[in-house]
Amino acid sequence: MTRYFEVIGRDGPARRGRLLLERTINTPALISNDRIVSAGSLWSFGSVEEALEAADGTIDKDKLFIPPHVSVPLHVEPPVDLPQIETNGPCGLVVHPFFLDEPYPADVYIMGAAGSLRNPRELLKAVLEVKEKTPPDSALYAPALATPANLALLVYLGVDLVDSTRVVVDGYLRRYHTHDGSWNIEDLRELPCRCQYCRAMEKEDRPDLQMISDHNHLKLEEEIRLVREMIRRGCLREYVERVVRVTPEETATLRLLDQEGRYLERRTPIFRKSVMYSNTAESLHRVEVTRYAKRVLDRYRAPESEVLLLLPCSARKPYSKSRSHRLFAGALGSWRKRIHEVILTSPLAVVPRELEEVYPAAHYDVPVTGRWDLEERDWLLRCLDAYLERSSYKKIIAHIDGELREAVEEHGIDAVYTGGGTNGEALSRLTKAVKKAAIDASVLDHKKLRVRAVTDYFFGSQSGDLLLAGEVRIKGREVQNGDKKTLATLTPNGTIALTIEGARRLEPMGAHIVEIGEFLPRGDVLSPGVVDADEEIRPGDDVIVRGEKAFGVGRARMSGWEMVRSTRGVAVELRKVEKV
Ligand SMILES: [Zn+2]
């Protein structure tokens, strides 16, 4: 159980937190030696007993205390197991990433031999091993590893604490670091930095090694500030996609991480305030993209519509608000009620109209060139095939043009291709095709379909039917029962917020339930109060809080698995709670 570290914000695996030493350290952070007291390596003592005895005298509650540890190279199994020491203060435990069983409770886990993690696969494996085997509310410290160029990636992987050891030592070896990589200082014709050390060095014939170190340290400090800001803004991923370009190794690490879908998915919020930029090849593999596609295929049910209309995306989101989609809607007129619309786009592939507000469908931006590269095409067509396989349209109209039309048509999708476009002629082609196809089609209740789709998207298949059972009506963004009591509201964020009545309807599904102890929570539910929680809950999800004495609804601040394993932090922000 940790008492000295608390996570206060998340952006994927990256966290902002507080390490409560005498003066609080806001993580991710550089930790300096004066904040740490280490009992030292076991090898500097005559015996285990001697080491433990000496350790007792060095405990300092104001600092991070590191009990005696066994220092070994990365791939050597530590030959001795040391017993746990009671510290009564903030404790940092050295762990060996490749030989890790159940480590003792600690506030900070320090990755042994982290400085020699240079290979992308090893770095990733080491971090993931330690993260899986240590509590989620503890901090991870990777010593002697950070540089200004790799810092954002380390934090994105889940590292909370680093130090400047590597760049300071590099300075004495004439290695000059910047956010864009490092060079031997003698190979630089001019110094790209204008800090006081660099200005001073320019005046000298031979660079002062101490000054290179000081400059390097400064660059690392600047970078950590920027990284913290990126986490606050919820756009560390975009930043990391950009900075890993510095070396092939870093790019490889990010790509390998993306292949570890589960690690990222379990830590990725359901919604972010920031716009998701899809600027790189890696963007196509983001959790937000694969999660959306997976839920459209697994949870979403297309309405029993006879006619499907395929449309292109628009720069403005949600699409309905864009000029082109308003023109499409105008051209469809009252026929719109008889057809189902799906938008084809990169990187989300298939966006049913009902889910156009769900994150990230209304919150992404891509460089628009009209070109679809092979990987994008392949992803789009695989998703479209899978989508069509699960639905029962009799006719498809494709109002798309350019390379998008080419891709869909060449793939052999049997549709009426109206040529796309938004000019008068194009729109009348669209009207004509829809009239012809939908003449016998039945009218759909698009408002209800939207509520059903959004509910299924968040709570799982069939939950929409439960929410909408019996007499219900949709008023604006609210779902009401026969007594005009609100069951749920579609939020402007694209999520759905349940009321107590709505939660009662969904409760039998068993999804998104947070079981709490025998108490009536006031304000937020803290993680020690959580007895059990649905493994599928992600930060930002609407949840149902249930206990012997309380029933309520709220929004998850952490993932379900994290609520169960954490001993600190807010688990659920309660919106409404009732005494049972
Ligand atoms: Zn400088």
Describe the model:
33% of the residues lie in helices and 21% in strands. It folds into 3 domains: 255 residues, Queuine tRNA-ribosyltransferase-like (TIM Barrel, Alpha-Beta Barrel), CATH 3.20.20.105; 163 residues, Uracil-DNA glycosylase-like (Rossmann fold); 129 residues, Roll (Archaeosine Trna-guanine Transglycosylase, Chain: A, domain 4), CATH 2.30.130.10. The protein is built from 18 helices and 29 strands. Helix 2 crosses helix 8 and helix 11 packs across helix 14. It is of the alpha/beta class. Strands 25-29-28-27-24-26 form a 6-stranded mixed β-sheet. The protein starts with a strand and ends with a strand. The mean pLDDT is 94. 46% of the residues are buried. Bound molecules: zinc ion. The site of zinc ion has 5 residues, from helix 5.
